Amino acid sequence: MAQPPPDVSEDECLPEYRHRFCPDLLRDKVAFITGGGSGIGFRIAEIFMRHGCHTVIASRSLPRVSKAARKLAAATGQRCLPLSLDVRAVPAVTAAVDQALREFGKIDILVNCAAGNFLSPASALSFNAFKTVMDIDTLGTFNASRVLYEKFFRVSVPSAGAVASGRPLTARPLVFQDHGGVIVNITATLGTRGQVLQVHAGSAKAAVDAMTRHLAVEWGPQNVRVNSLAPGPISGTEGFRRLVGSQAGVGTKTLAIPLQRLGNKTEVAHSALFLASPLASYVTGAVLVVDGGAWLTFPNDLKLLADFASFSAKL
Ligand code: HXC
Ligand code: NAP
Prior knowledge:
binds hexanoyl-coenzyme A; binds NADP nicotinamide-adenine-dinucleotide phosphate; Rossmann fold; alpha/beta; seven-stranded parallel beta sheet
């Protein structure tokens, strides 16, 4: 069985990297990655850049993305533009996309990786807490996708030849400028079986998977591919720390995963690279699950739910 590629747990670049894919797979492409300053998003940026891509990494904390961008550029020799935005704020998303387009002249790939999560029983979850996660994960994904589509991906400008023909617009064969684009939405399998303590994130990510299919259908004719990538438990990430990192029995749970181990960020990034690249040129509307088979077997911990509920009740 293939060994997993090496990884490091911090938000640092890999000390060594051996290419499995062609090193110029994304040469001169530009990727806009929300949540690209940390965890899985940081590694996706690094792996894309190691394959010739320039990146824009965007999240709320400018110091965080600026520090990450310096590391990424130094390790890969590619350009990385750090930008501050909250994916919930459409004007901020629009301003960031405008700035990225001024800097690079184009954006080929959007990775929606920004997200928020924590453990909470539904009965203790405030209305605003549920809304907050829906806003970041689901609306944030729509906001960035819609702005990118409008500003660049949409193929709507008839070529000079078509305009010069003088025929009425309806009678002309529309010859479009060749851009389109690729969207990769980072989701999760939580909603597939209904994971305890995760009604907010599970609902938000399930909605994004549905959005993936809707947008793939509507935007396919514009040469925009839209796919979801659903990681399982990934080591060295804030998401994993928040969900299971501090719990006893993590080892036993890991053994419940068919591949008997956690995934790492590089493995997720390689799958994102595949989806974003021309290797996936006929793949759209799909959910690529990258979880070692975990969603098929991972136990639902009803005792943890009971513990949480009694703890919450004491608050
Ligand atoms: C219950 C909580 C809570 C918690 C916040 N809230 N933390 N409720 N348990 N631990 C409630 C607050 O009380 C408030 O409700 C509402 O949520 C909004 O909180 P704010 O702090 O004002 O929100 P905000 O500043 O926007 O921060 C969003 C956040 C935060 C999600 C709460 O944790 C964050 O910024 N997270 C980003 C990093 C992150 O989560 N990374 C992990 C992604 S992993 P009230 O009612 O009091 O106003 C991931 C994994 C998915 O997504 C799948 C894994 C398998
Ligand atoms: P992470 O490091 O906390 O990544 C989340 C990123 O989103 C952060 O960089 C954060 O930066 C940014 N962000 C949060 N709220 C934002 C907002 N409102 N606007 C803009 N940016 C925002 O966590 P991770 O574990 O690597 O998770 C990355 C992705 O993988 C998420 O989509 C998550 O749901 C998914 N996932 C993770 C796992 C796992 O095991 N880790 C499993 C399944 C799915 P700022 O704080 O600077 O804004």
